[in-house]
Structure to design on (258 residues):
């Protein structure tokens, strides 16, 4: 099958790199490059082999993390929502929850706990999830957090996220060990679900990116707290700013450090 490729022996390494830019990696391509007499070309083949292995691992992870949802579908549940939140711990801003129903026929490779992903990767996946899945978002602001406490505000945000989907959800998979109170939909909690179940991973990414965008907007309004850097969490510089300027309208007054 190697005759499908150009004669790399008559190409410079620069030309080979340009050729590879828009080509899918295959075992045949790697083997063709590995047979070249030049060390630089052999190194290219080794780099491609690593990329191919990484890609296979990502695809395998999708299938492994899809098993729980697949089993639920096999016993009759159709619309299965994964749910997670972002922003329980910060001293300022809302807590944001996301509910995501994935389409099993439209895999989204690379899903993981949002905390394990770079900001660039989260944003790429955020766009892909919104294109391929059904997404709901719910928020509880700092005033609601102060009124009913962060735990109840988180559950409120989760219910709002499920309502935002505006479809008859059959089953809910909740990250963590705390079930959503008074939920009329069948649910199950999954500890570390954001790294074990695709729908919850997707929800964690949507919640995280959505909250980051909100807090970055607040950073423009209240630059003295450097929300762009600390995202509302109680870093040393944030505490110092609170001591110097007092709290802002988006701070959680019920939190002791505020």
């Amino acid at each position: 099958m190697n005759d499908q490729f150009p004669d790399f022996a008559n190409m410079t390494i620069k030309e080979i790199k340009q050729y590879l830019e828009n080509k899918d990696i295959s075992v045949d391509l790697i083997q063709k490059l590995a047979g070249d007499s030049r060390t630089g070309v052999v190194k290219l083949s080794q780099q491609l082999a690593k990329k191919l292995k990484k890609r296979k691992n990502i695809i395998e992870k999708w299938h492994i993390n899809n098993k729980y949802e697949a089993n639920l579908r096999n016993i009759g549940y159709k619309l299965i929502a994964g749910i997670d939140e972002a922003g329980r711990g910060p001293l300022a801003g809302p807590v944001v929850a996301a509910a995501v129903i994935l389409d099993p026929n439209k895999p989204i490779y690379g899903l993981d706990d949002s905390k394990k992903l770079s900001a660039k990767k989260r944003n790429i996946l955020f766009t892909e999830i919104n294109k391929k899945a059904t997404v709901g978002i719910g928020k509880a602001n700092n005033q609601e957090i102060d009124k009913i406490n962060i735990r109840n505000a988180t559950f409120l945000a989760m219910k709002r996220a499920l309502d935002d989907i505006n479809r008859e959800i059959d089953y809910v998979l909740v990250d963590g060990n705390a079930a959503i109170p008074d939920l009329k939909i069948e649910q199950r909690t999954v500890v570390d679900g954001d790294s074990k179940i695709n729908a919850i991973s997707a929800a964690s990414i949507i919640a995280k990116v959505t909250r980051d965008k909100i807090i970055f907007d607040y950073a423009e309004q209240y630059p003295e707290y450097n929300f762009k850097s600390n995202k509302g969490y109680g870093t040393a510089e944030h505490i110092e700013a609170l001591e110097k300027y007092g709290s802002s309208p988006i701070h959680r007054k019920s939190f002791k450090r505020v």
Summary: The CA atoms of residues 79 and 169 lie 5 Å apart. The first strand starts at residue 80 and ends at 86. Residues 76-208 form a domain with the Nucleotidyltransferase; domain 5 fold (CATH 3.30.420.10). Strands lie at 80-86, 95-101, 134-140, 171-175, 186-190.
